[in-house]
Amino acid sequence: MKFPVGVNKIHAASFRGDNSLAYVFMPKTVSEIHKSAFRDCVNLEEVKVESEYVRIEKTAFGDCPNLYYFDFDGSIQAQSMVFNGTPIEEDLKKDSRVEWIEQEGRLRLSTTKTGSEGNNISASKAMELFLYSVTDGDISIDKYIGKNKQVIMPDTINGLTVTHIGDACFEDRRDVSGDCLAYNH
Question: Which runs of consecutive H residues, i.e. helices, occur in the chain?
Answer without folding.
Answer: 89-94, 123-129
